[in-house]
Amino acid sequence: MSAHLLILPILLPLLAGAVLLLFSGARLAWKRPLNLFACVLLLGVALALLVKAAGGETQVYVLGDWAPPFGIVLVLDRFSALLLVVTAVLAVPVTLAMSAGTDRTGQNFHALLQFQLMGLNGAFLTGDLFNLFVFFEVLLIASYALLVFGGGRARVAASMHYVFLNLVGSAVFIIAVGLLYGLTGTLNMADMAQRLATLPAEDVALARAAGLLLLLVFAMKAALLPLGMWLPAAYASAAAPIAALFAIMSKVGIYAIFRVHGLLFGDHAGALAGLGQTLIWWLALGTLVLGVCGMLGARSLRSLLAWQVMVSVGTLLAGWSLGTAAAWRGALFYLVHSTWLTAAMFLVAGVVVSRRGIAEDGFMISQRIASPAVGLAFLAGAVALIGLPPLSGFVGKALLLQAAGTAEALFWILLLVAGLAALLAFTRAGSTLFWRGEPSTPRSSAVPMPMAPVWMLLPLSLLLVLAGDPILTYLGATAEVLKTPQALIDAVLGARAGGS
Predict the structure, then answer these.
(1) I need a surface site. Which of 12, 49, 54, 432 has the fewest CB within 10 A?
(2) pLDDT tens digits along 234-248
(3) Alpha-carbon distance 372 to 163, whole Å?
């Protein structure tokens, strides 16, 4: 069984989603525990794979008994294992939050969640460029339906922009894959990396164009300026638990930039080394500026959090553009922190909406929530996202600034200004939601939102700090392998048929 553990993050949600669809007419009392059981089981598998990957050996699973580079492979290393755990940890509280009643407002949430998890896990594990496209499409199709879950004009309008841009991105993706396949004769990313490094001089320009198209697609999915304007409206209009789940969505594009660019266009890629890195640097800084402006102008808590996601995207890709293992270690720490804490705060926003009557989470009406528990959760999440000590946001930003050094003064200024802007924005939000005005009265029709899922995620910020030494050791080793992927390439191409 252990030899086949690597494929379970894909098979488990596939089977669970199929069963949930098969019994789509069944009562929610049956669907909820089945979905939760599948998510908990997935978390156990992800943790087991993390332990397996922590030793440093790359695990390769050969599908269909066709040895690389001809067959399809799944690849587990420290990076993919980390993202599997981040996603699985997120799935459990999201399921609990939806099961409190939000899942009554639409059809087949539980099946869609499982298919979304299947697409995410497949994207993190695949070693094949075309199958990365396939898993992107799986998770995007599920996200289209989840975004409009519960209906409403704002959600439909936001989903139209989201769907259109992603359809364009998918078309560009498949064109880029076709160009790279025509140049190298392979879709296996490890094999493609070796062939791109030794391309004839006359093919380099076409390979550069294909690589830039790939980078364009990943930047759009990561919501990088100017391709990320779909994100604020989409995240702010989605149901709170779904917005919490979407905290991992923009990270898929960032994962692809780290993984695919590191393999195909890293330092070993000859004439193609560092493709687009300078461009991403300036776009990332621009995304930071845009996110700061959006936070300061936000009119609701969910909108503020959506712009905070833009800030995290700019921060992460600026860290990637620095191009050092130390910067990548800091970026990976910040990726984990920002995913979990942003999700927690979207769940807090859901609680606010359910308890604040017609004002929902807007800042234009002074109507406070008289709940110390909700206020404390908001304060803890805001402190972490702002980057104040002693929580994980401070550690992530400190690692990035340390890696940047004094030579990157502009990055220092923008990251510190982003923290100040977040402090101002969350202070305004907190005073409006929890301090000023009369106590709010929930609407009788409001869907309840429990606090338990919030408290499952918020303590993880402190855990990241308390367990900082082993976590940073793990992330440092991960960054080193991403920077020098030859060991991964050798492991994939050295794999033989027979399962692993």
Answers:
(1) 54
(2) 888 888 899 999 999
(3) 39
Q: What's the pLDDT at 445? A: 55
Tokens found for residue 440: 């709010």
Kindly report the number of other CB atoms within 10 A of residue 383's CB atom: 19
Please say if the pLDDT value at position 420 is more than 60.
yes
Enclosing H/E stretch for 438: strand 438-439
Q: Which of 178, 186, 185 is nearest to 209 (CA)?
A: 178
The gap between the terminal CA atoms of the chain, to the nearest Å, is: 12
- Give every CB contact of residue 411 below 8 A, 6+ residues apart in sequence: 285, 318, 322, 400, 401, 404
**What is the pLDDT, as a whole number, of residue 173?**
92
Residue 498 pLDDT:
43
Using DSSP's 3-state secondary structure scheme, residue 439 falls into strand
Q: What are phi and psi of 196, to 5 degrees?
A: -65, -35
Q: For the residues of 146-191, what is the DSSP string, one character each? A: HHTTT--HHHHHHHHHHHHHHHHHHHHHHHHHHHHHHHHS--BHHH
Question: How does DSSP assign 26-64, residue by residue?
Answer: S-HHHHHHHHHHHHHHHHHHHHHHHHHHHTSPPEEEEGG
CB burial readout 182-209, b (16+ within 10 A) else e: ebbebbbbbbbbbbbbebeeeeeeebbe
Report the DSSP pairing between strands 367-368 and 73-76: unpaired
Q: Which ranges constitute the DSSP H helices of 99-152?
A: 109-125, 129-147
Which residue has tokens 């004769």? Answer: 185
Distance CA 320, CA 279 (A): 12
Q: How far apart (Å, rounded) are the C-alpha atoms in residues 194 and 268? A: 9
Please give the single-letter amino acid code of residue 351.
Answer: V
| 3-state secondary structure string across 209-253 | HHHHHHHHHHHHHHCCCCCCCHHHHHHHHCCHHHHHHHHHHHHHH
